[in-house]
Amino acid sequence: MKFAVIVFPGSNCDDDMVYAVQEGLQEEVDKVWYTEESVADYDAILLPGGFSYGDYLRSGAIARFAPVMESVIEEAQKGKPVLGVCNGFQVLLEAGLLPGAMQRNKDLKFICRPVELKVDNNETGFTKSYEKGESIIVPVAHGEGNYYCDNKTLQHLKENNQIVFTYQDDINGSVEGIAGIVNEKGNVLGMMPHPERATTSLLGSSDGLKLFQSILNHWRESHVLTS
Amino acid sequence: MVKVQVYVTLKEGVLDPQGSAITNSLHTMNYNEVKSVQTGKYIELEVEKTDDLEERVKEMCEKLLSNPVIEDYTYTIGEAVS
Question: What top-level branch of life does the organism fall under (chain A) (predicted)?
Fold first, then answer.
């Protein structure tokens, strides 16, 4: 399986994402510069955390119009797995691939620490290796992770089982403690916590590795077994 | 050239964490007459005057300058300046 990690000016978790795929999964991964025109040759697309374009205007607002994003949006619409972590989640929201928007954390503080998450939906291609309701430890590092959506959107998210991860404690003011959501098809996941920083016990937690293993297993089920 | 002034504010009902922090601070300073504070962004553009100027400014506001999920925008288009 071949992964692409998109690198925007200001991305700073790109190497962590590469590490998760290379060391955690032993799979192939390329860093893809934001000026590239196509990501069609990859099996999964990862949007890393960081401060794309310095977070000017709004987090993710400018990155959303980077040349490579047109192809990312196209591949996402075709059903390819796309994972956006932290700033990557913000980019997915700005691009309209996921509903809602991000605001400053309710206490206006940058939060950087391991947090406890609940796996609310383990039926996506990103979470199959987890148990439903499983509690996992994954670090967060964000100043704008306060997820907002209106009531209608929230109802829709609930009805379609699109809420994938929630915080066990209210750390940033997110609506219903939402930490990660998928699109309706389930092939685009955005989450504020960093699973790529929790892939080995040396990092304090290996709970994030299952997410990457889920992507790989899901892909194998639909590609390798049928060939 | 024309000066375009764009104001981006949070939609009504969207909690404004920065506004709340400023309100609290003003109250601490004994300005208790302040009931609420709304923050926003001011963006000034210098634009070449075209016939479809207003339409294009609206487009800029909707596509990039504001996020329609949480924000509203208003703008004023100034007199042409050389």
Answer: Bacteria
Which residues constitute the domain of residue B68? 2-80
Q: Which of A75, A86, A149, A218 is catalytic?
A: A86
A168: domain CATH number is 3.40.50.880
pTM, rounded to two decimals: 0.94
Q: What is the domain-level CATH number for residue B51?
A: 3.30.1280.10
ipTM of model: 0.86
Helix (H/G/I), strand (E/B), else coil: B58: helix
Contact (CB<8Å) A103/B67? no
Query: What long-range pairs does A106-109 form, CB within 8 A, spacing at least 24?
Result: A106/A146, A106/A172, A106/A173, A106/B15, A106/B17, A107/A172, A107/A173, A107/B17, A108/B17, A108/B18, A108/B21, A109/A143
Sorted by sequence, the CB contacts under 8 Å of residue B22 that are 6+ apart come out as B37, B39
A145-180 pLDDT per residue, tens: 999 999 999 999 999 999 999 999 999 999 999 999
How would you classify the pairing of strands A135-142 and A111-119? antiparallel
Measure the CA dihedral B6/A52/A32/A190, to 10°.
Answer: -90
For A70, counting Cβ atoms within 10 Å of its Cβ (0-12 exposed, 13-18 middle, 19+ buried), the class is middle
Domain tally for chain A?
1
Q: Could you say which residues from 157 to 176 on chain A have a Cβ atom under 8 Å away from some Cβ of chain B?
A: 173
